[in-house]
Amino acid sequence: MTVGYEPWEEARGAEIIAEHAGLEGATLVILHALQKAFGYVPEPAIPMVAEALNLSRAEVHGVFTFYHDFRKAPAGRHVLKLCRAEACQAAGGDALAARAEAKLGVSLGNTTADERVTLEPIYCLGLCATAPSAMLDGRVVGRLDEARIDALVAEAQR
Amino acid sequence: MTMRIYVPRDAAAVAVGADDVALAFAQAAAARGAAIEIVRNGSRGLCWLEPMVELSTAQGRIAFGPVTPADVPSLLDAMAGNGQHALRLGVTDEIPWLKRQTRLTFARCGVIDPRSVDDYRAHGGYKGLERALTLSSDQILAYVTTSGLRGRGGAGFPTGIKWKTVAQASADRKYIVCNADEGDSGTFADRMIMEGDPFVVIEGMTIAGITVGAAKGYIYIRSEYPHAVEAMNAAIVAARRAGLLGKRIGGSAHEFDLEVRVGAGAYVCGEETSLLESLEGRRGIVRAKPPLPAHKGLFGRPSVINNVLSFAAIPFILDNGAKAYADFGMGRSRGTMPIQLAGNIKYGGLFETAFGVTLGELVDEIGGGTFTGREVRAVQVGGPLGAYFPRALFDTPFDYEAFAARDGLIGHGGIVVFDDTVDMVKQARFAMEFCAIESCGKCTPCRIGSTRGVETINKIINGERVAENLAVIEDLCNTMKFGSLCALGGFTPYPVMSALKHFREDFGPAPARLQAAE
Asked: How far apart are CA B40 and CA B24, in angstroms?
């Protein structure tokens, strides 16, 4: 179970949805809020969002699946995102990503078997003049080299 | 006497340890009983010197960098003493890389405390809005039009015309939308200004609101920018408290308020109609135009949708006059462009300068070439949809039309430098891959073309019927360029075709490469 998140509870979900349902175009705001609370968007929440916003289930499911950010299952205990866009490629990011994959034994987009680390690609953190860049659980790290990527991987595995 | 020390809170500085440095200063000062005040400013944009710390002195601010926590005790000694230190860079404003710039939009970025309205005002902030409040809508439009400002997001559409269209539309509600979905790799100017001088964005949007008669604005920021989201939200609260957002702005009859909305990792949402769909709570599917957003935009209402840098340019224009802005630049590209030097570059960062500087000056002189010390082989200008330029085209001046004439685009002003280890056929494949991942799926040329593009380039890499497959790529690119609904599919051919045109040798079949090597 991902650390730091609440377990899914329908009443809590309903509370979060109600908090934002009055906003103009509230769907993304609500999905973000649910994911922030539970670490992912639990499937039972989808029809609840639809009902609150007077939308069809299909419509909310469509929004949920369109965006890369939203998770349908909890991530690993730590999420390590490596920038794979051009500026980081130019600065040697390809080799570092391969190194992280090898150390963790998973390819980008997957979670280690012990559910400790989810390794993901990200397309640009806007840290392109201090490339290559990564983000570990929301903390940004730049000027990556072999030593720094190894340290990040080790930190994520703890 | 209390020493005032500036330690940037810009994400690029934080990524290389600025938070640890700030903490080290606080701890070291407490341990020795020294009185210091730490201001967490934005970044000056000299990214290779980050974390760059500054000390406020009677002679101006003195810069030190790049600083690590281990340097802090000796730095404190130097700051309390004669100021000499191995990391000393001199008076910040005199650093040649900074002095050579023309900072109109970024004048305050890295200078002020981005959380303080008072500091913003003390450095000339809100003078543009004050002027605007004394003018009619038509008069403000004349300022914006005469300045020659063109959309800084990449399309380069004249901002004045866009605003005028919305001002003339009649509707029960209108909206101002700020496109802060800065997804292009190699660009970070929006992020920097939002983190370093958020009030200039708020002021620009407020002026837009009173000009066109909109009372509500949204800033759509990508989720990859949590620091910018935090900075903008804090600034909005501060502006409201100061009576500069909400009802009766600055004591006038105008009402305008702002809300930040966060994207969810879809690159295509940087396209304006897709962004509007996303703001409305839907899938980020591109809309066909017409109707233009200026007529039917957010929630079907007339909407001004501009990039962060377009809004951020407005306060200067209102404060100093349209001519003061238009005097800079060349041809139809007026004013300044915050250019971002990125990738494998020695002196990377934010360089704001008048249009007209050449690509070669930017990469070799200002950027100092690569940080790996190897030869510069290619530079991609304008993000993932921008063309790759070889050294032979380094005389191209930074100007919308000049880049277009060479089958490229300046886009949002990002320049990514690659050294001679780059394999251009892989870069071409990546452009297609990225388009395939990020395509919204609405139009066939983009959705299918990009996937076929990846497959075909893979065949070329494997040496399968190279000449025939290159013809397929050209054909695909033409279909995507002329048949796609928006710039994602429409511009993906730029990096692909430029790689093929200028770096043909990387696309050759394996035997031909071996022969060339012999």
From this structure: 14
Task: Return the residue of A nearest to B495 by Cα.
Answer: A86
* pTM for the full predicted model: 0.96
User: How would you label B61-75 residue by residue, b for 16+ Cβ within 10 Å and e otherwise?
Assistant: bbbbbbbebebbeeb
Of A32, A90, A124, the CB nearest to B417: A90
**Could A86 and B12 be called an inter-chain contact, meaning their C-beta atoms sit closer than 8 Å?**
no
- Cβ A130–B16 below 8 Å, yes or no? yes
Position A147: which residue type?
Answer: A
B283 and A CB contact within 8 Å: yes
For the segment B362-390, what is each residue's pLDDT rounded down to a tens digit?
Answer: 999 999 999 999 999 999 999 999 999 99
Q: What phi and psi, each to the nearest 5 degrees, are found at residue B19?
A: -65, -40
- Reply yes or no on whether the pLDDT at B518 is more than 60: no
Radius of gyration of chain B (CA): 24
- Concatenating the DSSP letter of every residue in B168-187 gives H---S--EEEEEE---STT-
Which of A26, A88, A127 is the closest to B281 by Cβ? A26
The token pair that represents B508 in the structure block: 């050759």
Q: Out of B267, B281, B380, whose CB is closest to A123? A: B267
- By C-alpha distance, the chain A residue nearest B49 is A130
Residue A130 and residue B186: Cβ atoms within 8 Å?
Answer: no
Alpha carbons B510 and B40: distance in angstroms, whole number: 54
Q: Which DSSP state fits B50?
A: P
B496 lies within 8 A of chain A by CB: no
DSSP code for B443: S
Between A and B, how many CB-CB pairs are < 8 A?
A: 155
Judged by CB atoms closer than 8 Å, whether chains meet at B348 and A130 is answered as yes
Using one digit for the tens of pLDDT, what is the confidence trace for A105-140?
A: 999 999 999 999 999 999 999 999 999 999 999 999
Mark yes or no for CB contact B422/A90 under 8 Å: yes
Share of chain B above pLDDT 90, in %: 97
The whole-angstrom separation of Cα B186 and Cα B467 is 32
| B291-335 pLDDT, tens digit each | 999 999 999 999 999 999 999 999 999 999 999 999 999 999 999
Place of tokens 């369109």: A66
- Contact criterion met (CB < 8 Å) for A130 and B50: yes
- From chain B, the residues in CB contact with A142 under 8 A are 12, 15-16
CA B265 – CA B240 distance, rounded (Å): 29
Closest CA to B473 of B492, B96, B337: B492
Residue B11: its chain A contacts at CB < 8 A? 125-127, 140
Report H helices in B372-492.
Answer: 400-405, 424-438, 444-461, 466-483, 487-491
d(CA B454, CA B238): 48
CA–CA separation, B358 and B349 (whole Å): 17
3-state SS, residue B296:
coil
Residue B187 touches chain A, beta carbons under 8 Å: yes
